[in-house]
Write a structure and sequence with these properties.
Distance between the termini: 93 Å
Number of strands: 0
Order of helices and strands: HHHHH
Radius of gyration: 28 Å
Number of helices: 5
Oligomer: single chain
Low-confidence stretches: 62-71, 77-81
Helix content: 55-70%
Shape: elongated
Length: 144
């Protein structure tokens, strides 16, 4: 027995677009999915599933099985745009590259935090011991 799809692709596309639009317009509203589901008379869990599939790029409203090429509502399908979906190997390579970049940035952040901490300690010592810092414009100690 073939499963009949309960909602048309048009309803799915319009509901997803409506949620995305409302999320941009009302970022603080936590009940958007429920409200849009009521508006389009679809199940809230179905709408959440469509949004998840839209977010991860695995939903194609034009294919018979509802999976595929990362179609985004409001844009032509990738075949019409001349784009192809990246392979799993390409995606994994990109993830690994980004993880390396994150590691470098985290190490840079730790180094900068240490430098700022050392400078703050030096400034604290200089101000508590009464040492005067040179005037930045002349290079001479400030006059009292």
């Amino acid at each position: 027995m073939v499963f009949d799809r309960k909602y048309s692709d048009e309803i799915r596309r319009r509901a997803v677009e409506r949620v995305l639009q409302r999320r941009r317009d009302e970022p603080e509203n936590r009940s958007i999915v429920r409200e849009v589901a009521e508006e389009f008379e679809v199940g809230p869990q179905s709408l959440r599933k469509w949004l998840t599939r839209y977010d991860d790029g695995s939903y194609d409203y034009d294919s018979p099985d509802g999976h595929g090429d990362g179609w985004e509502p409001g844009t032509p399908p990738p075949a019409a745009r001349g784009q192809r979906r990246p392979s799993q190997r390409e995606l994994q390579a990109r993830i690994e590259e980004l993880e390396r970049r994150i590691a470098v940035l985290q190490e840079d952040n730790r180094s900068l935090t240490r430098v700022v901490s050392l400078l703050a300690d030096q400034l604290r010592v200089a101000t508590t011991t009464g040492a005067q810092t040179p005037d930045s414009t002349t290079g001479h100690p400030p006059r009292l």
